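Reader question, answered in our methods column.
A reader sent in the components of a multi-part assembly and asked whether the whole thing could be modeled at once rather than chain by chain. We filled in our standard form and ran it. Here is what they sent:
COMPLEX SIZE: three components
ENTRIES:
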Amino acid sequence: MSDQPVRAEGLTKFFYDESRGEIRAVDGVDLGCSRGEILGLLGANGAGKTTTLRMLCTVLEPTAGQAWVMGHEVRAEPERVREKLGFYSASTALYPKITPRETLRFFARINRYPGARVEARVDDLIQRFGLADYADSRVEKLSTGMKQKVSIARTVVHDPPVLIFDEPTVGLDVLNAIELRDIIAGLRDHGKAILFSTHIMSEAEQLCDRIAIIHHGRILATGTLDELRDETGLHYLEQIFVHYAQTAPVAMADASRGGGRLAGGPE
Amino acid sequence: MGLRQIWIIYRHEVRCALRERSIVVASIVVPLVMYPLLLWAMLAGLSFVAGQAERLTSRVAIQGLPEAHGALADSLAAHDRIRLTDWAGDRESAHRAIAEGRLDVHVVFEPASVGAGGVVDNFRVTIWFSEARDRSYGARNRVESAMAWYREALIDDVRRELGVADPVWADFVVVRSDVATPVEISRSILALVVPLLTLIMVALASFYPAIDATAGERERSTWETLLTVSASRGQVATAKYLYVATFGALGGLLNLTALALSLGWISSMVGAPEAEELAGTGIPLAALPVIGLGIALLALFVAAGMLAFAVFARNFKEGQSMIMPFYVAVFLPALFLRSPDIEFTLALALVPVVNVAMLIREVIVGSVPVLQGGVTLLAMALSVAGAVYFAQWTISREEVLLGSGQGGLLRFLRGRYSMLRRQR
Amino acid sequence: MRPGSPVLTVFGLEIRSLIRDVRTLLMSVVLPVILLPLVLLASARMEGRQAERVESRTYRLAITGPDSAFATGLAADLVGGADLEEGAGRRFWMVDVAEPRLALDDGVLDVYLEAFSPDAWGALDPADTAGVGLGPEHEGAMILRIRYHSSRTGSRNAASMLQERLVEVRAERRDSILVHAGFTVPPQLVGAVDTVNVASADEVAGARLGRFLSLILVGLMLLGGSAVATDALAGEKERGTLLTLLTTSATRTEIITGKLLAIMAVALGIALIQVLNLWFFLGLGLIEPGSGFAVTVSPALALGLVVLYLPVVALTGGVLILTSAYARSYKEAQLYLTPVLFGMAIPTLAPIMPDLSLQSAIVVVPIANLAVAARDVLVGQVHLPALAAAWLVTAGAAAWVTDRSVRALHDEELITGDPSRESFLGGPDLFRKRVLRWFLVFWAVALLLQFNLPIRDVRLAVLVNVGLVFVVFPLIVIRRFQLDPRKALALRAPRPGVWLGVLIGAPAALLTGLGVFELTQYVLPVPAEMVEGFGQGLLPEGVPAWQLILLLAIVPGIAEELTFRGVLLHGLRRRFGPLGLAIVVGLIFGFFHFQLFRIPVTAFLGAVLTGVTLLSGSIFPAMAWHALNNGLALFLATIDVDVEALGWWWTAGAVLLLGLAFAIIWWNRTPYPDMKPANRERPG
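And here is the structure of the entire assembly that came back:
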């Protein structure tokens, strides 16, 4: 076993989508992410990015395949896995009735951060993220940008070695997005292993150390931007992405094939 | 006025509502199914309790019964719900047994202190029982009525010996005869039940649509979409108002329909004879238009009130909390209409909601309170107009539309007030 | 639990969120706390005024009839003039009216009294005196008839009061007759009866309170707890915070436990606040504690009650959180809450049953058992082993319900809101998921029809009720879910040997069913008149025998089997094992027979028929069996055999025969296809 903090082998999830029927939302995904590295998952809407990341953080259970976070398998030890990671996405909201300070305290405690150090850690984060002015007013009264900072702070409050950002910049203005990317880069420099999904090419270009192109549930290529350039002979990531997407075999499982590996198939 | 725009929005609202499970359940299914379900539950419960009570035999211990009155013990033993048990222990142990539920009554005979007169071995009886136990209490009643019969027979023997003639002794007999027809009885019961249930159903049926039309719009972020179409705010508000009122009235009417269908059953449950012939005749036909009008007025009033309260809500939960005080305010007075003795005075006719309930009650029993009816109509029309005006006014305020009016009606009004003062 | 554990952290968050949600707090705590005493106060005042009015009201009475002079003499001390205050009996004004009957109808009179000599009574139109039974002991007596209008409260009260008073007058007159005739002893001392209550006032009050305490407490807890519960999972889904919570390292069990504790604390807290609230108002004397409800509660008793109710609190909280777990939004949770409220209230009514002892089957019914136990404790009767068993049963139920909530948090469809495979694809798979829901709706429709069908002719009613409804429903289901009719209705030929089993089994099962009926009488006794009334309703007179057989045996045999052993069994086949299927299908079949006393017997028949279908793989033997069963029952009813008098050996023989029939069918079996595999791993 390699010592990569995040590793997945043959990760597969059947998914049922109103518009497309039964598909393999994620189909045999292999990936790995090292310390101090940002791995970008690049794909169009519905490519399987969110499903992959949700399986890694144990919200969804893989139909097949395995994944490890800091050596803990996602199905065998989901609690240990979640202890080691911070998950952030546009759809993870905050509790409106409590203050940022209370939010951080809550997530530190519930993620088993050593009790004696909680206060120091919370104070530290409040300083670092510039939350001091509104640390004690209720979350429901904060602006979008402030809420986003609180959200990131709560993601890292228990100092997890692995961080997962699922399309974090969706719905943010340019300044906020830039600030967020700076924070994520800073976290990498602190030695975190970071998984970052996006459908924005420039973002992936700027931020990611390595990029995995995911399309219709399959990883089509993985590598640094230079490696991908070499392989395709194209310069811009956008061109590279389109190249892979167009030359990929038709990977989409059609609805009529049915889910052979699911319990209780059709009659 | 742009009736066409209103009609388009109204139709859109109704169509969406009919696809919303919560609204369909609260406004259509519940009013229709409630009566049969309640009846079934009541029937099942009644037969269960009746069966339980009938099964219970009373365990009776007798002590010190004089030889001469052996017939009493025989008559008790012959009762198929009384079981005589021998009690060997003392009085205290018997009382303990009663308290613990092992024995139901302890009947102790003692010689009477007064002279025998014409009665051989005159006695007095003490029946020990526990009021804390239903079974013991029932046993006491059984033994007591058996004793009453026996006493009467004893005294009857005495008077025969004394030569009192039969007709003198028989004296007179009292019989009761009810002149009310089954229809009248069933109407008097309906008059108590229908107004309250109609009110409940109208309010329940408007509840979900009112929140859906306001907070729901904000939750789905469709408010702004709706406001950017080429209809005035007044038209949007009117359409929404009519939509909520429609569902309220629908709930009330369905409730009435279900009731009419179940009427035969209800009458047979309350013991009116020839229940089958009653079906459909319980509510006089002439009363139906009045009841219909009453439902419409209630729906219009309730819809306006609920919209005015719910319009500040940002989500379903807030909407619910905000409507609740209005809901309670509508219900509370109605709770006191349970009493059959309240008269429909002119003063009552001035109280909105209560007056409609009273009017419905009066027309069901067949009376025609013209004056009170007119006052009711007037009072309701005024209050509906007031409520509609208020709802219109709040809905058209910008700060409400854009959802910045946090904190509900009170804070909104306070904000308006301070704004007015500043302008001055 | 160490401080800082995830359970306590989640608990703290829930409580803090509630306390800061001022509006919810106002609605679920403050408003009820103000309203409850207010409503009680007002309704007590109203009842008081009404009672006062009844007390003080003077009724308008007229006396008529051929012998009115006699009645006037008797009633003299009832009718008051100016001195109404004096004498409790003087409550009537005499009114002179020409037409008392019309006056009564118009409300001018409350009641009138007609007096007849025996001869005058005999001369009345028989239609007028119908329904009045006069025994031989009334030979030669005068007849006093009280006429009143029962749809008016005043008239009803007046009639009762008048009757009561007249009976008293007669007793007084008899006493004086005896004394005049020379009877020396005061007549009331002949066989004088005295009753003594051995229960203390506290015990009596405890018994009264015990009947309703559980209902009140559970009601208060449900209303209070629901404020947190709907927010706890459904609200989190709506806000999107559930996903955040699920990606923390807290386990699902820890999350549910923390939230459950919060719900329990709030439910208990609000219930206690309300109890104290009432106590306060009772203490001030603003509310009268109903007649004899004043029970003194010692601290030890109060503590005992709290401990006793703990599992009830846990189960109530568990049910609430489960409801919340299944709802996708706050609104949906709210919608589910009403049926949950009613469903939970039913078992709390158990203590109303007269003489329901805790040492009976009730001990295994969660909530109901502790409700009965609480009544016993209040009366001062404690049977410790039964009480402990009841406590454990309800606690176990609470644990089970909580476990279901934890599993719901593993359900990906519920967490993410994405449609599951079945609900997306529709068709037969979806039917397996929805079958129970469809049958619930069907049950409501059937109930509606059963009670409301405005058809006078019994034949037509049966044809519509059974024939049409039970044929149409399977067809709708088959069409809606695109089922294969042959599979869904098990339309396959059984092996020939099965028919012999049916021939032996049907009469045997009928007799066994009668035994089952006798057995259930111990648990669910039924008033005899009800059973007789049912029999009479079923056998309409003047209907030819062939029509009876067709309508009551053959049509139900075919139609009901299509529904129950057809689509229902098909839909449930992979959800339970064979035994479970027999029980569940049987019970649902039973509940479609509505009358409480018919449910156990029909459920038994339903279970047997399910067994037959499962073993023969075909619906036809069940149809034949069902028709034969109904036909035989019809036959027994027409020849008027007293089956109950047959004795236990008939039942024993029938059980043996039924076993033989099943053995024959077993030897000729064709198993029902596509059943649930024997060892399936637990989901979640």
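What stands out: The domain at 59-170 of chain B is CATH 3.40.190 (D-Maltodextrin-Binding Protein; domain 2). Chains B and A do not touch (no CB pair under 8 Å).
Send us your own complexes using the same form.
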